[in-house]
Design a protein that fits this description.
2 domains, 10 strands, transcription, three-stranded antiparallel β-sheet, 47% helix, Tscrpt_reg_MarR-type_CS
Length: 343
């Protein structure tokens, strides 16, 4: 059964609207009981109205609501605890405003939720490099409401943290592959690695120790030399093999975005190529908003790095971290070339 079918079995869109609002209605208050304020900026009036209605239903207090021009013009205004922006089309003025808003969010603690289009994603992504925003790509209404719930979860001292595990799971499981994400997040430590190695492990699969102890009588750990990255032609062949499955089966049956992202970036690193966030979303094999969540989590876990374009500060790329590159090299060295062809 595909994940799409499974998700539909869990909750319908109508059920989602009701349950998500019920779970957040009493939670959208600060520790003093004051409703959190949200500002909304969107040029598409129907999108702006929908976001406003959902924010009110979730218990938020409305701050500034208007089109993008109101965010760009005039003196700085109080934006509240969260800012929701819809900008499917961007120009130089909007991008400059996003950069300014990114800095303001860092200084004030406001949470940003920015929806955009695939065409504008690279530009928007490059502008928002400090505030850790939620980026949504052509989202459905349900995805926007889930983003509101995630805003609440990120607020310090919020009563949403007192919801039962079942209530939290109801919100979480509505996002693509979030069951796997939630399972890994629960096992991850603060730095993306749990006591047992966590969801993302960077160590070699086998460690060697010196036969004799050191002068203080303790054994010495001998770290194996770093293996080279695999031949990028091999990695590209593996990627093509994985993509070929969609010809015969539902592609979502085999969706494994974290691994597809790692494979694509491994090949790119070996080729000395740079990868844009849009290209990486395509390589992940899942919808862009889902891919962005994976990329964000993998950056936080230390697997990926955001890299500024030194020649054009308006652009940014995604690359493997040195630790992740070493782990991929060790992985391919461990399984061997023949086995790798079957990955």
């Amino acid at each position: 059964m595909s994940r799409v079918t499974h998700r539909a079995d869990i909750l319908s869109e109508t059920d989602f609207q009701y349950q998500a609002t019920e779970l957040t209605r009493d939670a959208a208050n600060d520790p003093a009981g004051v409703p959190l304020a949200v500002s909304i900026f969107a040029d598409r009036s129907h999108i702006r109205d929908t976001i406003r209605d959902d924010a009110l239903a979730a218990g938020f207090r409305l701050g500034k609501v208007g089109d993008i021009a109101e965010l760009l013009d005039g003196a700085a205004i109080a934006l509240g605890d969260a800012v929701l922006i819809d900008c499917p089309v961007v120009d130089a003025a909007i991008l400059a405003s996003l950069c300014r808003l990114d800095n303001r969010a860092v200084n004030t603690g406001a949470k940003l939720v920015v929806s955009t289009s695939v065409e504008a994603l690279d530009d928007v992504f490059a502008c928002l490099d400090k505030s850790d925003p939620q980026l949504l790509v052509e989202p459905a209404r349900g995805e926007r409401v889930i983003a509101l719930g995630r805003v609440l979860a990120m607020m310090p001292g919020m009563r949403l943290r007192e919801l039962s595990g079942d209530d939290r799971l109801t919100l979480i499981r509505l996002t693509e592959q979030v069951a796997q994400i939630a399972d890994r997040l629960e096992r991850m430590g603060a730095k993306g690695q749990a006591d047992d190695g966590g969801a993302f492990r960077f160590e070699s699969s086998k460690q060697a120790f010196a036969g004799q102890g050191a002068e203080d009588g303790t054994a010495q750990l001998i770290r194996k030399p770093k293996p080279p990255l695999p031949d990028p032609r091999l990695v590209r062949q593996i990627i093509r093999q994985r993509e070929a499955r969609a010809t015969f089966f539902d592609a979502e049956l085999f969706a494994d975005p974290a691994w597809d992202i790692l494979l694509d970036l491994t090949a790119a690193r070996a080729e000395h190529a740079r990868v844009s966030v849009t290209s990486l979303c395509i390589a992940s094999g899942v919808p862009p908003t889902t891919a962005l969540r994976w990329i964000s989590q993998m950056v936080e876990a230390g697997l990926l790095e955001r890299v500024k374009d030194e020649e054009d500060k308006r652009r940014a790329f995604i690359a493997l971290s040195d630790r992740a590159a070493e782990a991929m090299g060790r992985y391919f060295a461990e399984i061997g070339t023949d086995a790798a062809r079957l990955v």
